[in-house]
Amino acid sequence: MSSAPGFIYTSSAQTFLRHFLATYTLYLSLQSHNYSIHILHSFASYSTLISLASNLRIKRNMAEFQFQTDELEFIDDYYSTTDFDDESLAFSDNLSSGDGVDGGKDDSFLPDFEDDFDLLHIGKSKTDTTAGEARKGKDIQGIPWERLNFTRDKYRQTRLKLYKNFHSLPSSSSYDHLHKDCKQVEKGHNFYNFQFNTRLVKSTIVHFQLRNLLWATSKHDVYLMQNYSVMHWSALRKSVKEVLNVAKPIVPTASPRSFPLPLSRVQISTMSVKDNLLVAGGFHGELICKHLNEPGVAFSTKVTTDENAITNAVDIAESSSGSKWVIAANNDAHVRVFDATSFVCLNRFSFPWSVNNTSMSPDGKLMAVLGDSADCLVSDSNTGKVISTLQGHLDYSFSSAWHPDGRILATGNQDTTCRLWDIRNTSQSLDVLKGRMGAIRALKFTSDGRFLAMAEPADFVHIFDSHSGYKKVQEIDLFGEIGGISFSPDTEALFVGVADRTYGSVLEFNRSHQMGYLEAIF
C-alpha cells in the first residue's frame, strides 16, 4: 500500500490551501461571468488549482501521514474536491467539523448551494430518503438536482470523462488490452432495491486505498467509522449510537500475557465486525478488539513499531480447528494471527511486500494474501507457506472475498478489475469483471453465494449474479467516496457507506424476491 495514506494537513496549512483554492475559483467564476459552480466541479479546472497549490510546497504534518507534496495531484483523482468544498467557496464559518483526515474530512464535491452561492439549509427531517420518496422522483441521496444548473446525467458524464484512476505501478500497453479480457455483462438487473438513505450518520475514510469501514451484523444493525468513533446505526429504529470512541484513552482489560497496551487518539484505517466482536486497525499499527455486549475494550496494542506500520486490513475468521482468529495485515509486510479469546499472538507470517488484504477460505485452511504486488498469493493459514501464486492483475490489490463454497476466490485490483479464480486450478483466472472508472476497493459475497458486490473508490457498486455465471449485473450509481459495503448475514440487505461532507450517508438496499418468486412458478 502507498506509504502516503490520507491527505492530512496542519490546521494552518489546510486553512491557507482552502482559502487559496476558494479565492482562485471564485476569481475564475467571476471572470467568466458565470456564477454557477461548474468550474469548481470540473476535474480539469480543479487539477489546475491543485497544480498551482502544489507549487506552494505546502508540507503535510509528518507526524500524521507523511504525504509528499508532489503527490497533491492525486487528491482530485479520488476526492474531487476534498480539502475544498462548496461551503468553503461561500466562506461559511459554520462548517461541520471533521477529524482532519481526508475522507474523514469528507468535503463535499457535490453542489449543495444555489447559483448565488447561498448555502442550502436542509433540515434534519428532510435529509433522509425513503423508498416511497425515491419512487416519486426524489434523489436517493437527497441531492437537489432541480436547483442546479446541470442535470444528474450531465454531471455523471463529466465525472466519467474526467475521472483519473490511481495507479501504483507505471501504466503500460497491457492496460490497453485489459478491456478485451473482461467479461461482457448484462446491465440493468435489479437484485437489490433502494430502501432507505440516512444522513444522520456518515462514513469517514482515513486512507484513500482502504475501504473496509462498514459492516452489517444483521439486516437491522450496521457498524461504521465516523471520525474517531465507531457508530451503530439501527436500520429498524432509525437511530444512531456511539459504540467506541478512539479519541479517548483506551485501557484494555485483557490478561497481561497477551501484552495489551493502552492507546489514545487512534485513527482507524480498517475494521471488521463479526460474531459479537469488533476489531479495528489503526494508522500506526494499532489493533483494538471490543466485545459488543461488554463495556470497555477487551484488547489493544501496537502490533509493530515499524515506521511504516499502518494496519491495512483486519479479519475475524474461524480456523480449520474451529477456533476463532483475529488476523491483522500491516504495511510492514507481516500478517499476524491472534487468538480471538485470549488475544495472544499465535503466528506471524512474513511476505515480500506490504500486505494490503487477507481473507480466509470458508474451511479455514487457506488464506488469500494481497498487497503491493501485481501477484496475489494463496497460503496455508497455519504455516504461512505459499501454495499458489495468482498472476493476471496489473497493479496492487486491496480486496478479496471467498465464495461460501470455498472454490472461488475474488480479488480486487487497482487495474479496475476483479478476477475470479478457481482455487483448484489457479494457472489463470476464470473471469475478469470490470469496474466503471476506478480501482476495485471492496468485495463481498452474500452468505448463500448468490451475489458478489464490488465497490469502486467512488460512485459505483456492482452486484453480480453468480447463478448467471456473473453475466447479469446490477449497477448502483451514486455520488461520493465509498467507505465500505456489507451484505447482512441473511442476505436480505446491502448497506453502502458514503463519505462526503454534505451528502455522506448510509444507503440501504433490500433484496428483491420477485425474480425468485417467478423462477419458482416457472
TrEMBL record:
Keyword Transport attached: no
SUPFAM superfamilies membership: Quinoprotein alcohol dehydrogenase-like
Keyword entries, A-Z: Repeat, WD repeat
Ranges for the WD repeats: 390-431
InterPro entries, per the entry: Quinoprotein_ADH-like_sf, WD40/YVTN_repeat-like_dom_sf, WD40_repeat_CS, WD40_rpt
PANTHER family according to UniProt: WD REPEAT PROTEIN (AFU_ORTHOLOGUE AFUA_8G05640), WD REPEAT PROTEIN (AFU_ORTHOLOGUE AFUA_8G05640)-RELATED
Name of the protein in its database record: Transducin/WD40 repeat-like superfamily protein
